[in-house]
Amino acid sequence: MSEKQGNKIIITAAITGSIHTPTMSPYLPIKPTEIADEAVRAWEAGASVAHIHVRDPDTGKPTSSLDLFREVLSEIKARCDIVICVTTGGSPGMTVEERAAPVPEFKPELASLNFGSMNFALHPMASKFKGFKYEWEEPFLSMTENNIFPNTFKTLREFCEIYRANGTKPELEIYDVGMINNAAHMLMQGHLAPPVYIQFVLGILGGIPATLENLMFMYKTARQALGEFTWSVCAAGRHQMRMCTASILMGGNVRVGLEDSLYLEKGKIAKSNAEQVEKILRIAKEFGFSPASPDETREILGLKGLDKVNF
């Protein structure tokens, strides 16, 4: 933890994402009101950041609709002061232009920025269900066997330019060690401004496995390559809570939420994002940490403030 952060931890709730499909959990928020409600509940539970994707309200399919983003973002802002981190990862199959569009449109305080190309694979989940609620689900999952998530140096540079022009801080999503090298290059070229905010994303098929050894290696490598930075951890599925706990003990921050895991513990499905926030906060408090408020998070990350967004 930096001196400025003290014993405070930033808890992010990734509300719905674009990985899980409606068949997998009846609690996955789909409609704009459901996504907003979940963000507010997560804030009430102790989260200071909500990571936002949107979905087609009729089918639950991930979408890049700016109208749906506007509805969700405005509703959250009207009800609480949580920091909103808008996705530019989108979902498999979306174009770079679709993914980038929410930043100039809404000028959020914070937005995710995936920092390298990778095989982003969800296809093993397609065989785990005998039937799906909606026709789009199985093809959506299966097609990722041949999916490349593109984030070239050209698009990274263009994303950085868009973020800078709109006063939005990038949250660098680092799925593997090579992406640290990408970030170091973009810093050296002046496309990123230090100190950066990193989120290590562990356990995605196509990225680095979620192990303590890998997290320590990623952190050490980033410290050598990037100097000082603020950081967080999220991990897929069953790895979520244990890797987030490791992050707390190592001086990092955490992301939980139904985007990353649908479960609260083995065999027990989470009924809300707030349940996961409450669990990681209880763990953090056992080690003497307390949750950063949204305004404390803004100070820690150097964000522009909720009064300067466009929603």
How is the topology of this model organized?
Elements (H helix, E strand, L loop, with lengths): L7 E2 L1 E4 L17 H14 L3 E4 L1 E2 L6 E2 L2 H14 L3 E4 L9 H5 L1 H5 L3 E5 L3 E2 L17 H6 L5 E2 L3 H13 L3 E6 L2 H12 L8 E6 L9 H15 L3 E6 L4 H11 L2 E4 L6 E3 L2 E2 L3 H14 L3 E2 L2 H8 L10
Parallel strand pairs: 1-16, 2-3, 2-13, 3-6, 6-7, 7-10, 10-11, 11-12, 12-13
Antiparallel strand pairs: 4-5, 8-9, 14-15
Helix pairs in contact: 1-2, 1-10, 7-8, 9-10
Commentary on this structure:
This protein has one domain (8-308): TIM Barrel. 38% of the residues lie in helices and 18% in strands. It has 11 helices and 16 strands. α1 runs parallel beside α2 (66-79), α7 (177-188) packs parallel to α8 (212-226) and α9 (240-250) packs parallel to α10 (273-286). β14 and β15 form a beta hairpin. The radius of gyration is 18 Å and the shape is globular.
Total separate domains: 1
User: What is the β-strand count?
Assistant: 16
Mean pLDDT across every amino acid position: 96
The main sheet orders its strands as 2-3-6-7-10-11-12-13
What is the CATH third-level topology name? TIM Barrel
- Under the CATH scheme, which architecture would be assigned? Alpha-Beta Barrel
Helix content: 25-40%
Q: Which structural category fits the helices and strands?
A: alpha/beta
Instruction: Please report the first level of CATH classification, the CATH class.
Output: Alpha Beta
CATH homologous superfamily identity: Aldolase class I
Q: Provide the low-confidence segments as ranges.
A: none
- Percentage of residues in DSSP E strands: 15-25%
- The radius of gyration computed from the alpha-carbon positions, rounded to a whole number of angstroms, is 18 Å
Number of helices: 11
Distance between the termini: 32 Å
